[in-house]
Every structure is written in structure tokens, then in C-alpha cells.
């Protein structure tokens, strides 16, 4: 990547988000390295892909995970373990990263408490 300067790291700006969304609208959701170069964002393909998949996709759900979604996560985690992308496929609009983080920060403790309650 000579001549292009260093790749940007760190937080994304609103302008970069808009630029990425426009690039994806024109070029599609594939070949992220090519898209990153063509867009002129000075971000890596991986960075562009993760930003799109986890934050900018129009079909993403943002906000609170419902009790019904929690039940699905707990049930599927008991069945499949830490297969976050597989679990996310059963929860349209939720990302594997979001589910993993929610599990680790909150739901794991709740699930363990529920299990203790069943056996006591």
C-alpha cells in the first residue's frame, strides 16, 4: 500500500459511516479489501466489513434484547455452546458479536442462576 499513507485506526466518524454505506450501495457486500481501496476510506477491508456487519447494516436491530430473544439464546447455547454466529442466524437482526457480548456480560450469570434454581 505504498503511496496511500497509513491506514486509519480507531473510532469511525459519521462521514466515514456515510461514505462506507454509499460504497456498499454501489459495490455490494463482498470483496471488502477491494471496497476499502475503492472507497478511499483509508481503512482495512476487515475494518470496513466489521463496521458494516456490526453497526451499519440496515436490517440490524439496535437496542434492548427481549426476554424471548434471551430464551432463544439460552436454549441454543445449551444445545450448541459458544457457536455465536450459528445462534445469531436464529435471531434476525442481531449480530454474533452482540449476542456473545450480551451472553458474557449478563446472560451467562442469569442462565447459571436459573440452572441452580432447577436443581435445588
TrEMBL record:
Residues 4-56, 57-107 form the Myb-like domain. The keyword Transcription regulation applies. One of its GO terms (cellular component) is nucleus. Residues 1-56, 57-111 form the HTH myb-type domain. InterPro entries: EOBI/EOBII-like_plant, Homeodomain-like_sf, Myb_dom, SANT/Myb. Coiled coil: none annotated. Signal peptide: none annotated. This is Uncharacterized protein. It comes from the Eukaryota. Its main location: nucleus. SMART domains: SANT (SM00717). Keywords: DNA-binding, Nucleus, Repeat, Transcription, Transcription regulation. One of its GO terms (molecular function) is DNA binding. It comes from Penstemon smallii. It holds the Pfam family Myb_DNA-binding.
